[in-house]
């Protein structure tokens, strides 16, 4: 009998350790989502000191606290205590309640290089429409839509990925740095675009500027060209990437542009 009780106790301790580890992981994701421990503590109705004990594993919340957290963030107890969740998972749950448009506007202007070999210096203007579940990417020439791609998007911990398709032109992809939740609206930034080029529909990968406001391509050509060009101090490089610093520079440019427009 004693051996049986000991085995049960060992099993219970193992379950507790595993559950506690996953709970701490998910709690840290919630802290990231809310921005600070103080904000999360206030939101779930506990002291900041007690939340710190939850985070360190020195204490485990009462069942009513766990139930409240799950109801607040629209997740099940099984998910919260048994699955290490990502930040984007919690954000997706919030978007279901508040609407994705709380972070993004519906329509954005986009700018990228013309890929036709005869017009290397040209910059396309396009439109990216984002709804709660879907997206549409349209490329214009002289105000006329020449290509249209439709699809969906997926949010990860650090990125937003737009998966687009056209029956006539095939697939296109846009990968952008996920906007900070501390910003009330996404103003714009720079992303990576992959789509069939105009020349023989060969694959092409380049930068694309996403802006909440229309940019005069003639007046701002040098600035746009500087943002869109890939640069390297070396003669060759193994990969191409977009940094958050680069994204913030474009964000600042668009913000200043918006301020100038208001004047």
From TrEMBL:
All copies of domain HTH cro/C1-type, residue ranges: 27-80
What Pfam families does its record include?
Answer: HTH_3
Top-rank taxon of the source lineage equals Bacteria
What terms describe the molecular function in GO for this protein? DNA binding
**Would you tell me the protein name for this molecule?**
Predicted transcriptional regulator, dicA/hipB/ansR family
Task: Specify the species.
Answer: Clostridium acetobutylicum (strain ATCC 824 / DSM 792 / JCM 1419 / IAM 19013 / LMG 5710 / NBRC 13948 / NRRL B-527 / VKM B-1787 / 2291 / W)
Lineage of origin: Bacteria, Bacillati, Bacillota, Clostridia, Eubacteriales
